[in-house]
Every structure is written in C-alpha cells, then in structure tokens.
Amino acid sequence: MRVAVSGSSGLIGSALCPGLEKAGHEVVRLVRHSETRPGEAQWDIAAGTVDEAALHDVGAIVNLAGENIGQRWTASVKRRAWESRVDGTHLLAKTAAQLPSRPVLLCASAIGYYGYESDAPLDESAPRGAGFLAELVEAWEAAAEPARAAGLRTVHLRQAIVLSRHGGALERLLLPFKLGVGGRVGSGKQWWSWITLDDLVSAYLFALDHELEGPVNIASPEAVTNEEFTKQLGEALHRPTVLPLLPLRSKPSSARWPRRRFSADSASCRRSSRRPVSRSPSRTCAAGSSRHSLTKLGPWPRSTRRRARPV
C-alpha cells in the first residue's frame, strides 16, 4: 500500500516511516519545501494546497503534522499549534475525500482532550475537558469531518505521553534530573499516562490494517502517578528526586487571541491528571496488554541511560 505521511521528520514520523516500509508499504512523505525528491509530495497549509497528483493512488494518509506544544505557550505558539493541526487536518481530510483511491485517514490526537483533572479512568466516550489543549484537540478531530462525510474510515489516535530516548515530551525533563535537581511536578499525585515510541508505531500499524474508526486511546495499560514516575526515573539515572520542579511563569501576553497565560495553561498541563482507557479490548490499537512490548514503566527509565540510536 502507498501511504502518505505528514510530519514525517518529527519524532513519531521518523520512527513510523521506517516501520511502514519494513511492513512492506511505500511511503510518500508530505513536505513543505517546493523542490521535492523521489518519495515526496509538496503541501502548503497556509496556501491550502496539496499535490493531489502524487497522492492519487494512496491507500492511507497519516497526519502527524503539528507545532510542538512542548514549549512556552505564548500567544504565537498557541496560534501556530492551532493552525498547524486544525487547518492541516482539514486540508488533508478535504483532499482525501476527493481522491479516487478512497484512503484511510489516520490522525494523531492527544489525551489532552480529557482536560486537566481526572483521577477516574476515562474511555473514548468521556466528554471533553476544560482548557486550551482540550479545546484544541476537539477542533483538531472535528477538522477531519470532510473525510468522515465522504464515508472514509477516519481514526483519531489519542496519544498519551510518548517515551523516547530520541526527544519528545520528556527531553526537557531529563536535563534537570541529570543535573540532580529533578523532582515531582506539583503534588506528584496526578496520573501520568504514557506509551513508548515503539508501541505507538505498532498502534499506527495496527490501526492501518484493522477496522478501527473514530477516537482511540493509545496508552499503556499501566498508568503511574507523577511521583512514581519521578522516583523510577531518578533511580535509573542515579540522581536525587527530593525537590519538586517549580512551575514556569511568564508575563501576560498582550495578544488578543488566544486570551490565556502560559503560566495558567502550560503549567496546568504538566500538573494534569489523566487515566485514559479503551472502551473495549477490540478498540485499542494494542488489542490488550499482550500486544504491548512494554506494559509496565519499570524497564523503560533504565533505557534512558543507553546511547541514543538513529531511527
């Protein structure tokens, strides 16, 4: 199958594309530069254009594109996060609906949909939570409506925190730990749901080949509290974890949209508590814990000491 992938140079895309090729698929990387190489197709979110000729026979489109939200949530970052996800998804969904091959649309999403505070297990039927990230995820998923309206199978993979030695959400956590000043975030009692990069790639491959549709929670069966996560990471790195990490602060933004402060949203996100579960074993891309290569957190922190390998 020919599979088009946006965001192919990011953390997930850099692992997924080789995984797709290893599984026998032909990957078409959607890129923003105008001079494309073999195996690439140009697209431009701002201009609303996609090289449809290069995608005419694809069997699937995987949408991973989006501004990195692991940074200070200034007004400009929020705007880019919104436009890159919502506008980009709408463009690809509209394009997919017009292709004669009627491709499957797999879209990255996030457990941020459930908001900041919930200690109870939440399946895909749970309502949207509060906060900027929840609003963003709702709009992000809604942007795929052109594909759904055309009858295309559309899947939203609501990803938990991705654990990888190659970067991602935890890259900023490792530095204070290695300097000996790592610690819990806030009270440490909040639940942190997670998924390894390898298992996330397997989830995308599973979703590609199975009749999943709609939102699907992608997380390890074993969520841990931030306190336990901190303890295990500190032990793996042989560093103390006595002092809590202090929340970052910033001055209020003068921009009119969106009217939120970084210290209110981003810090709340880091202190958030979420325990996503799947409605039934058949709906999770891992199809039960037996398909996870790592179901417990324990072994993973020790791998952070290994030398990073290219993906």
**Uncertain residue ranges:** 248-273, 285-295, 304-311
Provide the number of structural domains.
Answer: 1
Q: Look at the structure and name the CATH superfamily.
A: NAD(P)-binding Rossmann-like Domain
Strand order of the largest sheet: 4-3-2-1-5-6-8-12
Number of strands: 14
CATH-derived architecture: 3-Layer(aba) Sandwich
Mean pLDDT, to the nearest integer, reads 80
CATH class: Alpha Beta
CATH fold category name: Rossmann fold
User: Mind telling me the C-alpha Rg?
Assistant: 19 Å
Write the element-wise H/E pattern from the N-terminal end onward: EHEEEEHEEHHEEHEEHEEHHEH
Strand content: 15-25%
- Distance linking N and C termini: 22 Å
Structural class: alpha/beta
Helix content: 25-40%
Write the topology of this structure.
Elements (H helix, E strand, L loop, with lengths): L1 E5 L4 H12 L3 E6 L8 E5 L4 E2 L9 E4 L11 H24 L5 E7 L6 E6 L9 H11 L2 H5 L4 E6 L1 E3 L7 H8 L12 E2 L1 E3 H13 L4 E5 L5 E2 H12 L24 H9 L2 E4 L22 H5 L8
Parallel strand pairs: 1-2, 1-5, 2-3, 5-6, 6-8, 7-14, 8-12, 9-11
Antiparallel strand pairs: 3-4, 10-13
Helix pairs in contact: 1-6, 2-3
